[in-house]
Backbone:
């Protein structure tokens, strides 16, 4: 059995253990309903995405968005999964409210491009190194909610 096949059979607890070994015991915040949720320091954001793709076999980028945590800043969340093994992984990091910044996930997952542009427009988060940083053409009318 090759390494990729072995990853395909990993249980969520095994994925959680691998994340904890790489990013610290406190990194895994939840394992439920077949999904592992990990909290990652912003300076390790790209490392965690690359680790998920290359070492955990979560090669499918599903979505990226943010949550306004008010005084605590913004939580940026990525959902990835493995088609081969069915594993689901949520990687989450927190950025400051003043000058929110993260390196672009599009360097690791090309599909993150549009999600980052939308998140930048809706939350004001800057994704450094983004391949196409101009904002999406959303309505400038404050009475019109952003598309969802």
Residues:
């Amino acid at each position: 059995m090759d390494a990729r096949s072995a990853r395909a059979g990993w249980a969520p607890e095994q994925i959680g253990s691998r994340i904890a070994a790489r990013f610290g015991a406190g990194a895994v915040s939840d394992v439920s309903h077949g999904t592992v949720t990990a909290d990652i320091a912003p300076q390790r954001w790209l490392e965690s995405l690359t680790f998920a793709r290359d070492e955990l076999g979560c090669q499918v980028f599903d979505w990226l968005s943010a949550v306004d945590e008010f005084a605590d800043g913004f939580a940026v969340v990525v959902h990835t999964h493995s088609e081969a093994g069915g594993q689901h992984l949520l990687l989450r990091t927190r950025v400051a409210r003043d000058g929110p910044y993260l390196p672009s996930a599009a360097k690791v997952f090309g599909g993150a491009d549009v999600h980052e542009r939308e998140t930048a427009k809706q939350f004001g988060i800057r994704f450094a190194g983004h391949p196409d940083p101009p904002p999406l053409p959303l309505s400038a009318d404050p009475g019109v909610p952003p598309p969802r």
The chain has a mean pLDDT of 87. Residues 19 and 28 are 7 Å apart (CA to CA).
